[in-house]
Amino acid sequence: MDSVCQFVTASSIREDIVRLLANQPQPTPKLIEKLDACRSGVYKELANLKQRGALAEAEDGWQLTACGQLVTDTIARRQATEAFLDEDIEYWQHHDLELLPDQFRRRLPDIREYDVVRGDMPAADKHVSAFVSRIEAGEEPDVLAPVFVRGLDDAIPDDPNTRVLVTSEVRDRLLGTVGSEPERERAFLNAQVRVVSADFGLGRTANSLCLVFPSRGDGEWRATLVSETNAAIQWGEELFEALWADADPIDEPEEDSFELTGRRGMVGRTRSSDSRSPY
Question: Spelled out in words, what is the top-level CATH class assigned to the domain 89-265?
Answer without folding.
Answer: alpha beta
